[in-house]
Amino acid sequence: MTGARIAPTPPTRSPLRRLRAWWAPARAHRTRGRSWLSAAVAALLVLAYLVWWLSYTGAHLPPETYDRRPSGAVAQSRAQDFQLTSITLVEALNDKYDQPKPAPANAVWAVVRMNVTARAAQPSPLCVVSLVGDREEVWDPEFILVSRDAASCLPDGFEVGRGYPTETIFEIPRSAAGHLAGVGVPQYSGADEPLLTVAIDPSVLPRG
Amino acid sequence: MADRRLTGWVLAVVCIVVAAIAVRLSEPGENYQVVTAPLGQLTAYNDGAAGADQLRVVTDLRLRSEQAHADGRFVVVRITVEAPRSVRVHVQHVELHSGDRVYQPYGSGEQVFAAPGFRTYRDVAFEVDPAGLAGLTVQAWDAGLVTGYHQRLEVPLGITAANADYWRQSGTGRFVDLSGDDTTEGLR
Question: ipTM, 2 decimals?
């Protein structure tokens, strides 16, 4: 008796097994891929933490508080000593090409001159200070509108322990001319900011 | 072993998809307070004041010495911020809204910053669909990497369905020269 022969049914594979078969050739690269993935996850975690930290501190830092110093006092910041020499108010400044640069309408230039001394050797000294009004308004240095020959920080090849004259320009409203408190020296540590003071002539000179 | 790893990966992908859907579904509504100013007037904004004026509708402009022709129209407004007290006032982002459409500034340089005692203004241009001039509204705010509840300035430009055709026609062939810089002056 001969009966019809039934063709054997090919074994069926579950979707999970098929996915595993597809995944298998990549096994050789898996270790390297995992290392890259770990590095990327670590980098993203660091980035997320930095974004959160910057946002949180930016939103929660209390306003700057100042430690007012008498005229002629020295303030330390990082590896430099700052001594305020003068603050002069002018209508217009001669730039390094000897062209007059008038201050914007209803504003004047405040020329802050200091003596800066390095206490230690350093690759890139920072001399950023701020001008503070008597209502604790803060003005940042103006580096773009006017460019002068005078050094704004320590020169190349500076000597430790030797004082160098510097000049920093600020743009302030004319109404603040008689209401300046001094120059704030940043501490980068959360400590009170030393406020260097000097006798300021509130009259505005025509040219500086 | 391999099955377990694969299951781990599948689970990870499922978690990411679920989290993405959850974030999408739970997006909060507006997290800002709208302060509205009529065109040409300043209004209280953050610790100072802000506003928009000098509306211009043109087809051609020069921005930082680069000339451009709009397929539609350029809408140009001047954004002004004032800092009369002891703190600075910023506008970091400016948009132009028309119904559901949001136009971003043409070119870069939309930030306006006023130091204490100063007023600062800057022209900001947008390239818009000329058929959608009616109802255009400027929005400006101080946006950081992470922005919490904040104030957002809104200035309706006053272009309505009734006068949109006038603005469209009068802007044809008009040209405006924009420096791209901001201008600062002391407050009296």
Answer: 0.78
